[in-house]
Queue: 2 jobs
Job 1
Amino acid sequence: MMYYCGICTVIIQLISLIEASVITFPFYQEEHNRNLVKTVDMTVGGNFDDGYYVSVNIGTPPQKVSLLIDTGSSNLGIAASAALHVRSYFQLNKSETFHLEGKSLKVSYLQGQWEGMLGSDLISIPGSPSITTHCNIACILSSNKIFSKDSDWQGLLGLAYPVLAKPDSSVTPYFDALVAEEKVKNIFSIILCEKPQHTNGKQSQGKLVLGGVQDYLHTGEILYTRIHKEWFYEVILTNMSIGSKYWASSCTELNNDKTIIDTGTSALYLPQKVFSWVKQSLQKSNVLQNQLTEEFWEATEDVCIQKGRSVSEYFHKIVMSFDETMNSRVSLVVPPELYLLKSPKTMPGIDCYKLGISSSQAGTVIGAIILKGFYIIFDRENRRIGFANSTCTDTVAAVIQTMNLHLDPSVCAYNSKEKSELTLLFITYIILAVFLSCTIPMLMMLAQWTWHYIIRK
Ligand SMILES: *[C@@H]1O[C@H](CO)[C@@H](O)[C@H](O)[C@H]1NC(C)=O
Ligand SMILES: *[C@@H]1O[C@H](CO)[C@@H](O)[C@H](O)[C@H]1NC(C)=O
Ligand SMILES: *[C@@H]1O[C@H](CO)[C@@H](O)[C@H](O)[C@H]1NC(C)=O
């Protein structure tokens, strides 16, 4: 049976190869694609605790800097002065090609902030000289809670859309500059590896692929969801299930006030209501009840289990379903091995874990803790985000096709402003109507009264 199907697959692949070559051949004649580098694979360094980064060369002569991969912002920011926790920094007065533009800027995050000056310089990728581009750089001159003791990076590579760029959207982000110069196609993909502890834990072998998708980074199909709005990578959650329970309230609550895919955030953040539901639904039995304190849910205390046992014996998987696009419906199966973080402290006979899920005021943020289980495709060209099973993970995280979605997924979008404006408008109309219906009879009565008592007299 297996062999039989194996042969079928080979034949099908052969046929599709022949078809593909026949169909794609004419496109090779397109002139403007001639210098297009197909894809550039950049090695991702770092780890979950300290952030994932890539290295670039900046300036002339080149200085090597490492940049945190951040799909939740849009500036390329580089430490340009000595600071706490910054081991090396970009020495802009040593670069012949650096231009200072004089504008100052300040960027604040949920945690931390930085201030600096806007400039520009040449950026190239080690090993891919053809992909050098002139790009805006935010030179970080002072910062607070951005760089940490163990982080091995000196800046941020903001990969989101220009509208989020500071001080305004006239600052072209790095990836947009590459695409505008036709260096790569308008698509990139990320795999943040989660290497098993025994292969020397701290290093990961992730990739940031500029310009496309690499087949060696995933198994099975890529399933897509629509990008709802192009600022952050905003998507729409349509359903969530944990064990036998599923989110039965309005699906707009899942996206209150937005849902974004953000490699620059570590945890999974959920709107308060959704977080409370997750809290009630996550445990499989009452075995760990006395350990699941408020402190555990606030991620300040660990839960400990017998060494050698699996967290999935005690906790459920979380299944997150997304809005469909072009008949593709995707759900992410997030196992407890992904959302619980193994604590570094060792104690005889037990393993301890911290929760990687938090409650948030700023919507759902699907951070690195979830993303490191998958291969993610930021297909900006077709305005969609793809997820595929990763070739670089030890957990049972899985991308699956969503079944039986009965509703129109767009009803799940959270649109606070438009809704309240609509309600206000509606209220205004009602008041006007009430006013008119009261005043017309009153005016008529007044007219009658005037006629009777003043004019007739
Ligand atoms: C560059 O500026 C720093 C201070 O910002 C200074 O210490 C250093 O000597 C300068 N280097 C050059 C080559 O001018
Ligand atoms: C991903 O892997 C899971 C488990 O191995 C499998 O059931 C699922 O079909 C795979 N997903 C895709 C899209 O191939
Ligand atoms: C959400 O998922 C559950 C379990 O898979 C399913 O029973 C339910 O119908 C889904 N809800 C919607 C609105 O699709």
Job 2
Amino acid sequence: MTASSKASATGNDEMCFDCGVRAATPGRPLVVEMYRVLGHSGRRLAFKEVQVHVPICEICRLEENSSEMRRNRIVGACLLIPLVAGIAFGISQGEIFRAALFGIGAGFVLSVIARATVGHKRRSREHPEIKSRLKGGWTFDRPGT
Ligand SMILES: [Zn+2]
């Protein structure tokens, strides 16, 4: 009886970089956008943008997407809730303008805090290309937003 070889026939089946257990979906990598500020050109901020492709399976892709969406929702809520509360308070006090300004300010501060603290699951940051870009000053957040 001969032992049958279970080696992959194609040889280029990539494993999912995220879980490392399932095979990555061919042709559908996780596209990670990264940015690097080059400096100011006139009044505009000049930056470079790259897309790093990380092999990933469908299940991990869904998890990445939902955690990114959750983060965006939290940041959005932090921006909106103080504004709405400020306007509502302003209407009740007859000081709409000042209250709205306060709401905008508070919302801005809160959303910046949320952006910095609400973790987006990024195991993909262990990817060698992403890792070396992070060291080289690249970030995940588009400059100036
Ligand atoms: Zn996976």
